[in-house]
Structure formats: C-alpha cells, structure tokens
Amino acid sequence: MAEHRSMQRAALLDVARSLLSEGGTEALTFPALAERTGLARSSVYEYFRSRAAVVEELCEVDFPVWAAEVAAAMERTESAEDKVEAYVRKQLALVGDRRHRAVVAISASELDTGAREKIRAAHGGLVAMIVEALGEMGHAQPRLAAMLLQGVVDAAVRRIELGAAEDPADITDAAVAMALRGVRG
Length: 185
Known about the structure:
Blueprint: H1 2-23, H2 30-37, H3 41-47, H4 51-75, H5 80-93, H6 98-104, H7 113-136, H8 142-161, H9 168-184
Helix pairs in contact: 1-2, 1-6, 2-3, 4-5, 4-6, 4-7, 5-7, 5-9, 7-8, 8-9
C-alpha cells in the first residue's frame, strides 16, 4: 500500500510538472491533475492540500537534483573562474528542463510562506556553492558577490524563458562574459 501511494504521488508530481510547463499556473488545477492521472478529484486531495503544497513538494524533489547537476559541473573544473563559468552555464542549460519550467511557472506571490521559504532556501543553496570560488578569486565579500552573480543568472533565465529574440546560446554566452568580468573585479 505504501509503495502504491508513493507511485501515485510521483505520478501526480510528474503531471503537475507537465501542466505547469505547458500552461503555467492556470493549468495546475486539481481537476486537471485528477484527469491526467486517472484519479478521482477527491483522491488528489488525499495527497496534496493545495497547489502550493504541490509546488513545495516539487521544490523538495527537484531543487536538490538541479543543485547536484550544478555542483557536478563545477567539480569537473579546476580554476575558480572555470567554476564560475560552469555555475552560470549549467543553470542556464537547465532552463529548458521541464522540472525547472514547472516551478518557475508559479510566481512567489501565489505561494504560501512555507513554499516561498523552500524556494528561497533552495536558491540560497545554489548561491552557497559559488561563495568559495569567489573567495579564492579574492573577493572581500564573496557571499555578496555570489548573490549578485545569481542575479545575473536569474536575469538570463528570465530572458531565455521569455523567448527573447536572442538565441539562448547567445544569452548564455553574454551572461558568462558579464559574470566573469564582474567577478574578476
């Protein structure tokens, strides 16, 4: 029974990712979750109390995966500058990932405090990854530099998600160049 519930929960999360990436916030409804998973609508409420609860769980499941991918990309490099480049490039490469699009589709204003905190904490974990490399580069305030660097990444993410006129590869290259010039001081 526990395995069945776990499989149902995973199926609901997978459908939630699809709904969010396909149609944004408006598409994530309990009737749509029920229809796509073949569950009764009332059964969806046995797994999640709200849309925010679905997003919280997506963050708990997906952010560690993204963070591990970013960390792995950074670990494959040697110099601090290469780590910065890997940090930026990997995050921007993940923009096309359905898991990323799903969580981004819901604006923070629609989430309860718990969900917003989980998202903030996850992003904080990403920022913490690059602090050491920035310290190695001689920054007096590597944490501040890391937060500003993440701002460059976030702006590039938004530009890519908007379907900007520029090619995503050009946006990535520009973000990397800006980040490296900025962190070199």
